[in-house]
UniProtKB/TrEMBL annotation:
GO terms assigned for molecular function: signaling receptor activity
Organism whose genome encodes this protein: Calypte anna (Anna's hummingbird)
Cited PROSITE patterns: IG_LIKE
The UniProt record lists the keyword Transmembrane helix: yes
Lineage, highest ranks first: Eukaryota, Metazoa, Chordata, Craniata, Vertebrata
Protein name: Triggering receptor expressed on myeloid cells 2
Length: 209
């Protein structure tokens, strides 16, 4: 957000978090100028926090504590990053460029640090909801267990009935086969009496005069 009347940009950050601010400038006109990030304590007093390295150094990023600054002279962007924010970090800051005693303000930034909401301050209703969901889950699991046991018992009973019927069928088949082997056939019953009668009668060929 920005305050149009004073040309101040408002940046919000969470306590313990971080924020990044980009300050743009004309790379051709202000490439040689020194850039810095300062904190506005009074109307005409801005205490420097961190200054950017000169453009000819190979490492353009510089850090001071939890605040770092990086100067991209090719794109004309000065990036300031504040990490591990605290409540005392809130306040008015400026991106500035200076050369030979002349100072220009690139951007004014109002940093606001918000306090994070602790989990212990949350209402206890979610715990109750969680307890209810746990109870319902336990009830669903118990019902599923009962159904599974019932189906298993039913399957075992059906298996026992099948085995019993199969055993009875096999026993009846064996008994029938043994009975057929012990009893003579109809042809033998018809032949045996005839043979016995024939063996007991001897023909006599006599003549009487």
């Amino acid at each position: 957000a920005s305050c149009a009347a004073e040309n101040i940009t408002v940046v919000y950050g969470m306590e313990g978090g971080s924020i990044s601010v980009n300050c743009t400038y004309d790379p051709w006109q202000q490439r040689w100028r020194e850039k810095s990030w300062c904190r506005q304590l009074e109307e005409k007093r801005c205490d420097p926090v961190v200054s950017a390295r000169p453009f000819w150094l190979p490492f353009p990023r510089k850090r001071n504590g939890t605040t770092s600054i990086r100067d991209n002279i090719h794109q004309g962007v000065l990036t300031v990053t504040m990490e591990q924010l605290k409540k005392q970090d809130a306040g008015l800051y400026q991106c500035k460029s200076s050369s030979l005693g002349e100072t220009r303000s690139l951007r004014k930034v109002q940093v606001e640090v918000l306090t994070a909401v602790l989990e212990t301050q949350m209402p206890e209703e979610p715990s109750a909801v969680q307890g209810t969901s746990s109870i319902s889950s336990a009830g669903s699991f118990s019902a599923f267990s009962i159904i599974a046991v019932f189906l298993a018992v039913k399957f075992m009973v059906a298996l026992l009935i099948f085995i019993t019927v199969l055993s009875l069928s096999i026993c009846n088949s064996w008994k029938k086969r043994e009975t057929e082997q012990e009893e003579p056939s109809w042809d033998e019953q018809r032949v045996l009496p005839f043979d016995a009668a024939w063996d007991g009668i001897s023909p006599s060929w006599g003549s009487t005069a």
